[in-house]
Amino acid sequence: MLWTFAHLWNESLEQNEEKPLVKRDYIWASELGGAMVDRYLKMNAVKPTNPSNARSKRKFEAGNIWETIIAYVLSRAGILKQKQQHLEYQYPGLLKVTGYLDFIAGGQPDYDKASSLIQTEFQWLPEFISRATLNIVEKLKEQYPDGLNEIILEIKSCSGFMFERYESRNEASSHHKLQLYHYLKASSLAEGHIVYVSKDDARLLEIGVLNPSPIEQLYKDDIQKMTNYLMRKEQPPPEQPIVYDQEFGKFSANWKVAYSQYLTYLYGLKDQFEFDTKYKSIAERFNRVIGRIAEGKKMTDDNLEAIKEMETYGFDVKKLNTKGD
To answer: Is 284 among the domain residues?
Structure first.
């Protein structure tokens, strides 16, 4: 049989086995804002019915590739202060939160030394990376001759579709903000940035989070709820498959269900494809009806039936923002 590089590459990335589950009484920072029921099951070491498949593992490694590139750029620019620092925080009487931040960047770099290294010692790297890094150093030297304040950078790679969504709203995902806030709280640093990387075209989007911040209340509430469930040994209820964004007036299939590693156990669905097939069309149908309401159009029999269906999912149409954004 003829060998192929693609086969070897894909197979090697798929060998990244997940760590075995063990019972624990602490929260990973990356879990903050996620489905309570999934977190509860993982903390009780319940075996997933829908573990990460080969494609999910490759997507994870694709994110690691971008993180490695950004680490190189920060390092060669002379502004990488720390990476993968382990940080813990615990409110009295609540579960501990723990995690590893991506990077702390800033400080007072030697710009001339950084430029020299990029042009002489690291020519084995792709030319565009060295060129971009050199440009960054020149701009930093021009704009921040006295150095930079230290901030946390949390890197998140995503599809072009999700990148456009974050960019249009200039808003990061709530669970990403909670994760970053944990690192700020535990380190006592004043500022951090979530850096979204579009895997489609290498664009970056940076959204800041401050400390102190109103996000702390969301952070503490999340920990309090998880603590209550775990201490009472009470399994949280499943997530709703359809959710509504009141600010933008849109229904969508709930990603917390779609990406659940307990999709079969909790919802009786074989895989994400079955979930998407069943619920994305429902969300689209609901959005069409909301659109007709916003336009003041007369409701058809099918529209009225859809409104009744919305109510079965727990939505009161009279209270929905039918104007959207």
So the answer is: yes
